[in-house]
Design goal:
Uridine Diphospho-n-acetylenolpyruvylglucosamine Reductase, domain 2, 16 helices, 7-stranded antiparallel beta sheet, binds flavin-adenine dinucleotide, Uridine Diphospho-n-acetylenolpyruvylglucosamine Reductase, domain 3, 4 domains, 21 strands
Length: 499
């Protein structure tokens, strides 16, 4: 077990030491006094907390499982006293190394903070950070309400993790991302003080929006312990279609066309031939996987007639070579199951893979797709093109053989640069974590990243909260991936493709 900061694995030291072994025993005793000895875990029992759903992993000192905000605050205060790193963890479904404890220290698991209240009159949910996101939507549904942000990992990930990563999902094209729903937060700061921001009210125009500083901060500015999220009315009807195209470029152009025509689908997902082939066994009967590209399109609303009419109008504008409307909720569910489980299917396949998560303005989707295709031709790497195309979020997923691994870093860097050149982002919804931190300045510029560093120093002067994440540490070059711990010599395969 590692006790302090690690230069070799992180690429750069933190300057902090963390406790030595004697101090470690004392730290364990003090943490156990806060949360109970059974909630301080190490050794083999802590293995699952050393990694996330990417290829990265790192040893840790202890996993600590507090029961409420007060215990979280006391744990952080205790760690701050010894300069011990604290890494917040939800379910560990991050795809960018977000909760991997790169400087060792304590992994603070929020999995016991699972209280959930659906407040119907105020149409909000109040959830402990460890609540699984799907549970909020399910409970809201019993009251005719909905919590829209729905990452493909919705059955696994936590609302605290979603807030920390500003997660998106399939319904975000119409409904927006996590940030659009967060109304209140309870946050434990780096010195253990408890900050309560926002609440159950819909409007507020009084001062800086500190609340949103924590959304997308990936556990580097504070530990979220409770979240108040907005709920919306649950639409009573949905209609879903799959529209197919001769080329993926045609499909991308159709996405831009339908959005420009003033339509707002509830979901609009792009899948190319390589993607469809992988999920072919999950598609409903009659939905052809042997096409070059397909869009899965959904509309929702309260009246079945207008919902279907609107869907048909969009299908017409998309102008594919063929279309098929789901005829039953079973068919619809299978269609979405095929899309949602792409990552799982890929994991079970023989392919090595690396999944990207870029966003571009809607009008630039066709050009981004063309650039990815060109990259594929030039490198010989197979690249699945899929994503939440309706909001410009593409997940180009590189499939590669062992002898092609050395080509992946340069290809991934080129995708980053192309997205930025088109006015886009290197991370639409997964966060920067370790994986993309070195490209932060290429996207945001030196001034913005300089301000981010100042904020981090102000809020976490010891640098104990999730060290080595988000802020760049090394040059943004073609070799970035080869420097990430675990990439060149991958361990056991995990879910590297949550897209
Ligand atoms: C199969 C699969 C599909 C996916 N699909 C999508 C998708 O469609 N859209 C999408 O946006 N993402 C997707 N993801 C990525 C991932 O699920 C999200 O980033 C999710 O929000 C992570 O939640 P988590 O609870 O697992 O957090 P973790 O992975 O445990 O942590 C993620 C980051 O948040 C921080 N963190 C966690 N909890 C807290 C807290 N309470 N306070 C402060 N910081 C905290 C951690 O330190 C870490 O930096 C997918 C992942 C997988 C494996």
């Amino acid at each position: 077990m590692e006790l302090g900061a690690s230069d070799e694995r992180s690429g750069r030291g933190t300057g902090r030491r963390g406790p030595n072994r004697g101090e470690g025993d004392e730290l364990r005793r003090r943490l156990a006094a806060v949360v109970g000895a059974e909630h301080v875990i190490d050794g083999g029992d802590a293995e699952e907390f050393t990694h996330d759903a990417s290829f990265m992993e790192h040893d840790l000192l202890f996993v600590v499982r507090p029961a409420d905000t007060e215990e979280v605050a006391e744990v952080v205060r205790t760690c701050a006293g010894t300069g011990t790193p604290v890494v917040a963890r939800g379910s560990g479904t991050s795809l960018v190394g977000g909760p991997v404890p790169l400087a060792g220290g304590v992994v603070l698991s929020l999995d016991r903070l699972t209280h959930l209240e659906i407040d119907v009159p105020d149409t909000v949910a109040v959830a402990g950070a460890g609540v699984i996101t799907a549970r909020i939507d399910e409970e809201a549904g019993r009251h005719g309400l909905m919590y829209p942000p729905d990452p493909a990992s919705v059955e696994l990930c936590t609302i605290g993790g979603n807030v920390a990563c500003n997660s998106g999902g399939l319904r975000c094209v119409k409904y927006g991302v996590t940030a659009d729903y967060v109304m209140g937060l309870t946050v434990v700061l780096a010195d253990g003080r408890v900050l309560r921001l926002g609440g159950r009210l819909r409007k507020r125009s009084s001062g800086y929006r500190l609340l949103h500083l924590f959304v997308g901060s990936e556990g580097t500015l504070g530990i979220v312990t409770e979240v108040v999220v907005k709920l919306v009315p649950l639409p009573r009807h949905r209609a879903t279609a799959m529209v197919t195209f001769r080329t993926v470029e045609d499909a991308a152009a159709a996405v831009a066309r339908v959005m420009a025509a003033g339509h707002l689908p509830a979901a609009l997902e792009l899948m190319d031939r390589a993607t469809l082939r992988l999920v072919r066994d999950r598609l409903p009967a009659g939905f052809d996987p042997e096409v070059e590209a397909a869009l899965i399109l959904e509309q929702d609303g309260n009246e079945p007639g207008p919902v279907l009419d609107e869907l048909m109008r969009m299908v017409e504008i998309l102008g594919g070579v063929d279309d098929r409307i789901a005829q039953s909720s079973l068919e619809r569910d299978r269609l979405w199951d095929a899309r949602r489980n792409f990552g799982k299917v890929l994991m079970a396949s023989r392919h090595h893979h690396f999944a990207e998560d870029v966003a571009v303005p809607i009008g630039a989707i066709p050009e981004m797709v063309r650039r990815v295709r060109r990259l594929e031709e030039e490198t010989g790497l197979e690249i699945c093109i899929l994503g939440h195309a309706g909001d410009g979020n593409l997940h180009p997923t590189i499939l590669f053989r062992d002898d092609q691994r050395h080509l992946v870093s340069r290809a991934a860097a080129r995708i980053f640069r192309d997205a930025i050149a088109l006015g886009g982002s290197i991370s639409a919804e997964h966060g920067l974590g370790v994986l993309k931190r070195d490209y932060a300045e290429a996207e945001h510029g030196a001034l913005a990243v300089g301000l981010m560093r100042q904020l981090k120093a102000l809020m976490d002067p010891q640098g104990i909260l999730n060290p080595h994440k988000v802020l760049p540490e090394q040059p943004a070059d073609d070799d970035f991936l080869n420097r990430i711990p675990g990439w060149s010599r991958p361990g056991p395969r995990r879910m590297e493709a949550g897209v």
